[in-house]
Amino acid sequence: MSSTDKNSSVPEAPVAAEAPAVSEAPAASEPLEDCGGQPCSSTLKHLYEFLDRELSPEQLRTIQAHLNACPECADVKDFELMVREKMRSSCAQQAPEQLKARLLQDVQKFCAEAKL
Fold this sequence. Notes:
By secondary structure, this protein is mainly alpha-helical. Helix content is 55%, strand content 0%.
């Protein structure tokens, strides 16, 4: 145990062996990849517009080509589509009548107390 940890009942961790060298990340100004003729950062920047079909046909083709060539960006797109589907299906569900009645009662009580 270390001298600063005299009262501790937790033993010191063993000293780890030196970790293998890790390759350096690209500079902040460089895109992580350029899979389909366009950097990932540009593809992801326009992903919502792509999903909403708010881009020109040429932009849609460019982003689709990148998504076809880049599994990482395709995974991000698939995740966003999954979130959208979950939100869509959740919005289709109806709240139970008891919950609606209780919320209405709470709102009416709040309005009465606030004299609205």
